[in-house]
Amino acid sequence: MIGRDSDGVSWSQGLRARAAMLLALCGVAMGTLTGACRAQDAKPPKQASESKNRAGSSEAAAKHSLSGAASEAAGLPPLQRVGGDKDAKAEKRGENYYAGACMITTPLPVGYPDPTPPGAIDLKVYPSVRRAEVSGTTMPDYGMYQGFFPLFNHIKKREIAMTSPVEMDYRMLKADGTQTKDHERSSDAYKPTENDAGDKEAAWTMSFLYRTPELGATGEDGRVEIRDAEPLVVVAIGMKGSYMLARVKIGVAKLSAWLESQEEWEAAGPVRALYYNGPEVSRADQWSEVQLPVKRKAKVGDAPAPNVPEVK
After folding, report:
1. Domains in the chain, start-ordered, CATH in brackets?
2. Single pTM value for the model
3. Burial of 146 (0-12, 13-18, 19+ CB in 10 A)
4. CB 293 within 8 A of CB 310
5. Which residue has the higher pLDDT, 279 or 273?
6. CB within 8 A of 222, min separation 6: which ones?
7. What is the spatial distance between Cα 205 and Cα 152, in angstroms, rounded to a whole number?
8. 40 class by beta-carbon count within 10 Å (0-12 exposed, 13-18 middle, 19+ buried)
């Protein structure tokens, strides 16, 4: 059976049930672990040797942040309105954000730009962030359900507070919202294919974000990979409504139209979505963003500009 949200986006009955369970679990995670975030901020300093190691890690991450996207981000503010509803606002009260009926009550990673309100299109600069990632080849709406459990168990085991957003990278989508040729569809899954380096590329990656790198080391934890994502310059559109691939495609189409309307920026990486809410917020009022990494278009006579690194 097929159901529809109030905005007309379709859900199958099975997907509704899975999504409801996923959002319920996300709400438990955000609700029970958000307080830990403030507790972590209040903890006394680590022992000297551990602090030194963490400081070295932070310094390396900071140097990492200056590479790759630095030339693209030069002179850019963290966030600037470039299209869509130019009057839309995200109001910050303490660590929370509000935009009409939408709200975010879980802290963002340190250094992250403010969320883009629904209907607005922003150009944004993101710093390097430590992410716990799970990748897969199933349909992404089911993948969110499958990826949640190992990620939640990872942060629970390490006593790492939940942050917002949960990030999804959609490698099986092109910048215009259509499927890439690199990921063949097979029944309810996408076949992983080899890139030019011979590495297998998953169709999607789901990530929980560390608020700061000091909360845990990089490495592997079962299915979970913990790594520092490259800094990014993105064009982002704020979205309102239930979290699903169909809505992501709507956002991608609007971003693609914006890219075609100007001459400075072009797409430079896989489609991303940032999901900010758990089930304490009704589906109709859930806040998200759809994003495309971008780079400056090369001008005639210019040396080729370095690419914005892909999220892997």
Report:
1. 14-296 (3.20.80.10)
2. 0.75
3. middle
4. yes
5. 273
6. 150, 154
7. 15
8. middle
